[in-house]
Amino acid sequence: MATYPFQEIETKWQKYWKEEGTFRHVSPEISTDPKYYVLDMFPYPSGAGLHVGHPLGYIATDILAKYYKLKGYNVLHPMGFDSFGLPAENYAIETGTHPSITTEKNIQRYKEQLEMLGLGYDDTAEIRTSDPSYYKWTQWIFIELFDCWYDNKLQRARRIDELVFHLSKNGTENLFAVTSIQDSITADDWNSMSEPEQQKYLLNFRLAYLSFTPVNWCPALGTVLSNEEVKDGVSERGGHPVIRVPMRQWSLRITAYADRLLAGLDTVEWPEPLKEMQRNWIGKSEGLELAFEVEGFNHGIEIFTTRPDTLFGVCFLSLAPEHPLALEISSIEHKKSVEAYIEKALSRSERDRISDTKELNGVFTGVYAIHPLNGNRIPIWVADYVLAGYGTGAVMGVPAHDDRDFVFAKKNSLNLKIVIEPNKQHDFNKGAWVLKEGLIIDSDFLNGLSVEIGIQKVIQTVEEKGLGQRKINFRFRDAIFSRQRYWGEPIPIIYKDGIPYAVSKSDLPVTLPEVISYKPTGNGDSPLASISDWVNLPNGYQRETNTMPGWAGSSWYFLRYPDSSNNQFFCANANEKYWMNVDFYLGGAEHAVGHLLYARFWTKFLYDLNHITHQEPFQRLFNQGMILGYRYFLEVDIERKIAFNKPGNENKIPKNNYKKLEVKQDFIDNKGFFIKENLNLLLERNNLESLEWKWEDSNTFEVELGLYTDKMSKSLGNVVNPDDMCKTYGADTFRMYEMFLGPLDQPKPWNTNGISGVHSFLKRWWNLMVDESGKLLLTDEIVTNEENRFLHQLIKKVTDDIEKLSFNTTVSAFMIFVNKMNESKCCKRLIMLPAVICLAPFAPHFAEEIWMKAGNTRSVFLEKFPIYDDNFLVSNTFEYPIQINGKTSNLRLSFDINKNKDEIGQEVIKNEGVNLLLKGKRLLKLIVVPGRIINLVIE
RNA sequence: GCGGAUGUGGCGUAAUUGGUAGCCGCGCCAGACUUAGGAUCUGGUGCCGAAAGGCGUGGGGGUUCGAGUCCCUCCAUCCGUACCA
Predict the structure, then answer these.
(1) A209 with A203: CB under 8 angstroms?
(2) Is the Cβ atom of A628 within 7 Å of strand B at any atom?
């Protein structure tokens, strides 16, 4: 029997494709074909190399790319590396190795692995974010952001020049700009400002701006993080605590684009849950902003509410600890306690804040506000459940109709006033009535109105009286853009007397200088700050020493691939117009609110400046499910010193006695059972006394372990590499097996149990077509209708399934096909060669080898994908299952496919077998669904 | 709390979108070839039952001639998010 020489053919064709450039894209100047741009999410080249989870998506996009190529498209399927980032830098801090060296090594390893899998990435398009020829353009885009402001009326970014012109003519009159300040100025005010004053003022408008705001400071990483990089109060990378401290930082005014980021979601084909996550993250809410006067002060406190209908139910006001008026208004006798409270609240870490979200504490300021509509006196409190960064940093407390206000009022013995009539069962001793149902009561001119109408009426009244206005707020914040780290893009800014100016575009890139130490200084300066001859320019100016965050380079990289070596522009217009946007983008859902939001923002911004022609970067997006790793544990009772032979004892023994001991691979035999002799060693590893232990069942030799499934990660030690699999079974088997595992979007634990089945399928196909001497057995015999039907069923299935990304079912369709062909030992040219073309996207080396053996001289990927013919798919009879009252019987009756309902019905009634089934019962109804089923309804 | 997803044999899964539940593969059982098998081939394999037959898509209810699929309700698991006024 011939062996299937996968090792030999895989290296052979990988080399051939590389030399021939088979999978390179064609420039739009030359190509007349439609384009197809497939993209994988940008990987960070980590030192661990690829694990089996990464290729899942890469294989899927590779199949798409190869399929579309066979369909006649000009395909761009590139790969690059998001090569700036913390791991390489942390490694540099530990070892002194320059991050670029580590990064280069890791990239080489990634590339080898990708090639080993037969992934046909276009090597001419490869990019790296840490390459100066790339980050030159990242810096260039930053300068464009610095040079723009956002016009709310035109709903687009405009040049700062135009803003300056407007200010000099009209001041802020008729200016609908997104800005950090509320004050209005006149043209005279503007014109009388000095140059530094003007520049300072303009920072309130620039889309890349410098501001002094509370930021997520991570002492362990020595850097500031964006909201998207903080999870549960700790850093997403490394899990270090994060605290809020005010610092001078670069931010990007992404909030200006909030509405367009929301609206754009309706134009793209993304999974609905992902769109929903972005909508929630942006968090648009409509409400009323209004001012309460403060007794004894001449300025009021602005609050924001989405429930203005409950305005008459206000029992207190709460200010965020950071609120500028919090201390100022406090009465003399309360000043001390307020001060102490604020100090304590501000020094708390984010994690502490989160850990007691149920505890709503606060402190009374000793002063009262005046209700703007009924003149009532309302106590003002300071409370840290009020966030400084949202709305106005102050809220009106309506304990009867808001959960938090209810808890706060109860804790601090404040009043509760009911202004919406709840349903009868509701008990105000137990909680607030928060539903927007019921009629308004005790509220002057609102009495008897519904919530919905009440809201509109209050807003209208308040606006008429000039007390406040309708307002839309967004949950998400401007993105903090500076990092106090070494291994990132330098921010292209220089300071003249403390005022930031953009580096001239002709001086880009601002390259990263060499440093002696990669360590963050810990006082908020980046390592760059210590290189004084880099920082201090000959003309007396200073360079910005912060670097850009990890997401800077990935926010526009998809625009670079179509023209990756252009050094005149980030992407020539013709190339951008032809290739963008990305037809198919595949990656994990973890980028939902970070990368995907920033990339959309930069795309819209570049569109506003006419640099590109598309507003949305990714037309169709798909999230692959994560591949999970297994870890194993053994259950023990530490009190009675018993080890269990089977998992599932958690609830059988007292909680304090129960323990799960993690078992590493070295204590597990090749059937997955625990090796009993290792019990003592395991106990010692877990620092347990190992004497006198017993097995629950000492007679059974096999010990089943419990399973944890979690994300594959180096730290959990559950990572599986594709390398060994590829060596044993070959890349084609590995590719098909990963696809065979199940639907692409479902998370699934990695499990190699089935890989031999996929491998023997390929072997069967090989043996069907190739004899022992390696010669192809193709024949030119006449093809039967049945064989044609099997072939065309296959073509149809593959075509349909690829469009749906249902690759697992495609693999099984190939298996069914080969099983059928094997039954008759069919090796006919007209059947087998089209099937090989179908297989090519999935098992490219296998297909290429057979294709070339068949006497062809150019790659199978230069062929045309076969098209199925419906005429071969239909058979002329259908075997109807016969149901009695909806239950399927054993009886089957064949009828011509073209026979209509009535004809079939007539014959069914006459049929002997049917009458036997009826057992003499009366037939009430006969249902015939042509091509599907026959159902007899009897009494 | 809120939002989303998922639940089908021992396991991974499939089901023409309301029409024969369990395709394909793993595992398991039996057999063939073999010095040997973690190779290959053949047959079997949802569960209960000797069989006839009955039961069966997380649980309960409903719509329908007919429900894995639609509706209501409950449960479990996973993911995201969290004081957003």
Answers:
(1) yes
(2) no
Q: Is the peptide bond before A520 cis (omega within 30 degrees of 0)?
A: no
* Rounded CA separation A258/A193 (Å): 32
Element (H, E) at A456: helix A451-464
Phi, psi of A684 (to 5 degrees): -65, -40
pLDDT (tens digit, 9 = 90+) per residue, A332-353?
A: 999 999 999 998 887 776 666 6
- Cβ contact A695 with chain B strand, < 7 A: no
- The residue assigned the tokens 């046909």 is A120
Least-confidence region, from A13-17, A234-238, A506-510, A804-808: A234-238
Residues β-bridged to residue A383: A362
Under a CB-based contact definition with an 8 Å cutoff, are residues A66 and A844 in contact?
Answer: yes
Average pLDDT, integer, range A592-601: 93
C1' (B54) to CA (A695) span, angstroms: 41
Strand B contact with A885 (CB < 7 A): yes
Q: How far apart are the first and last CA of chain A?
A: 61
Nucleotide B65's nearest residue (CA vs C1') is A937
* Contact between the CB of A383 and strand B at under 7 Å: no
Q: How many CB atoms lie within 10 A of CB A390?
A: 17
Contacts of A634 (CB under 8 A, 6+ apart): A643, A644, A660, A661, A663, A674, A682, A703, A705, A706
- Nucleic strand B within 7 A of Cβ A650: no
3-state secondary structure at position A939: coil
Q: Is the CB of A764 under 7 A from strand B?
A: yes
Structure tokens at A820: 């059928």
CA separation, residue A557 to residues A152, A485, A686, A714 (Å): 28, 21, 47, 27
Give me the interface pTM, i.e. the ipTM.
0.94
Residue A434 has a CB neighbour count (10 Å cut-off) of 17
β-pairing verdict for A584-587 and A621-623: parallel
pLDDT of residue A339: 93
Q: What's the residue count for chain A?
A: 939
- Geometric angle at alpha carbon A329, from A323 and A333, rounded to 5°: 120
Query: Å between A632 CA and B57 C1'?
Result: 30
Residue A886 CA to B54 C1' — how many Å?
Answer: 16
- How long is the CA A593 to C1' B83 vector, in angstroms? 21
**Which residues 659-678 in chain A have a CB closer than 7 A to strand B?**
670
Q: How many helices (H) and strands (E) does chain A have?
A: 30, 32
How many Å does it take to go from CA A804 to C1' B14? 15
> Mind listing the pLDDT tens digit for each residue in A398-429?
999 998 899 999 999 999 999 999 888 788 88
Q: Per-residue DSSP letters for A155-194? A: TEEEEHHHHHHHHHHHTTTT--B--S------HHHHHTS-
Using the CA of A475, which nucleotide's C1' is the nearest one? B84
A46: Cα within 13 Å, side-chain hemisphere: 13
Protein A824 CA to nucleic acid B20 C1', in Å? 27
- SS3 state at A651: coil
Q: How confident is the model at residue A225 (pLDDT cuts 50, 70, 90)?
A: confident
- Nearest nt (C1') from A398 Cα: B85
Longest dimension (CA), chain A: 108
Residue A515 vs residues A96, A211, A224, A535, A563: alpha-carbon distances, Å: 10, 27, 21, 12, 32
Checking each nucleotide's C1' against the CA of A408, the nearest proves to be B83
Residue A80 is which amino acid?
A: G
User: What's the whole-number average pLDDT of chain A?
Assistant: 90
Contact flag, residue A796 CB and nucleic strand B, below 7 A: no
How long is the CA A743 to C1' B68 vector, in angstroms? Answer: 17
Residue A831, pLDDT > 90, answer: yes
Query: What pLDDT shows up at residue A357?
Result: 61
CA dist A548 to A39, A166, A308, A529, Å? 24, 31, 41, 14
Contact A484, A526 (CB under 8 A): yes
